[in-house]
Amino acid sequence: METISSENVLAWLGACAAAMAENRDYLIDLDAAIGDADHGANMDRGFKAVLDKLPGLAGSDIGAILKAAGMTLVSTVGGAGGPLYGTFFLQAGMRTAGKSELSLTDWTDALQAAVEGVRQRGKAVAGDKTMLDALLPAVQALQYAQESQTALPLALRESAEAARQGMQATIPLVARKGRASYLGERSAGHQDPGATSSYLILKAAADTWSE
User: Which of 17, 155, 176, 200 has the fewest CB atoms within 10 Å, i.e. the most exposed one?
Assistant: First the structure.
């Protein structure tokens, strides 16, 4: 596969919904340790709402699909996740407006815009023990793959692997943003739930688009 089509994007969003449903309890357990224990339920509810919208988005361009997903997540995901993931998909949608297929360069640009939107919205940086700790390495891996002229399927897998490593690297960190920051030093030793759901989204992209 050399490009990502509108149909591929719809399939990815469906895979995200399946991943959130499958990992709902896992995300709840992670969030129970350092947050409000609602991240899994919130993400599952949000992506179920996105899943319900997908049939009506068939035939739309990629930007319109991603923007619709973003608006749905803003209105259905509770807590900080709604604005952050809503921003993620809305910014990606703006960068892909009018496109019916994406090259590796297009996807890299879209993900970079999405992550920058999250960074500005959440006012977090790398090492704050947030979703950015998974997302920033994923973008860097894509940029490196693009410079190295790596094939799209491999680039997606490398991006997801970078997100996984970034997610795991949140375990020893002390949270400096969000609900977990209230715990101070006690937040260390726990994997960040937002970084985990971000990894699941990028893994779903790699799994869906590498086939």
Answer: 176
Instruction: Please tell me whether residue 4 adopts helix, strand or coil conformation.
Output: strand
What is the model's pTM?
0.96
Residue whose token pair is 């996105």: 50
Q: 120 CB contacts (<8 Å, ≥6 apart)?
A: none
Angle at which helices 6-22 and 39-57 pack, to 10 degrees? 150
Q: Walk me through the domains of the chain, giving residue ranges and CATH numbers.
A: 4-209 (1.25.40.340)
Residue 20 is encoded by which pair of tokens?
Answer: 């959130």
The string of pLDDT tens digits covering residues 28-63 is 999 999 888 999 999 999 999 999 999 999 999 999
For residue 9, give both structure tokens.
Answer: 């994007």
Start-to-end C-alpha separation, the chain:
8
> Where is 102: in which H helix or E strand?
strand 101-102
Contact (Cβ atoms closer than 8 angstroms) between residue 97 and residue 132 = no
